[in-house]
Amino acid sequence: MLTRIDHIGIACFDLDRTVEFYRATYGFEVFHTEVNEEQGVREAMLRINGTDDGGASYLQLLEPVREDSTVAKWLAKNGEGVHHIAFGTADVDGDSEAIRGKGVRVLYDEPRTGSMGSRITFLHPKDCHGVLTELVTSAPVQH
Amino acid sequence: MLTRIDHIGIACFDLDRTVEFYRATYGFEVFHTEVNEEQGVREAMLRINGTDDGGASYLQLLEPVREDSTVAKWLAKNGEGVHHIAFGTADVDGDSEAIRGKGVRVLYDEPRTGSMGSRITFLHPKDCHGVLTELVTSAPVQH
Question: Where is the VOC domain (chains A, B) (predicted)?
Answer without folding.
Answer: 4-138
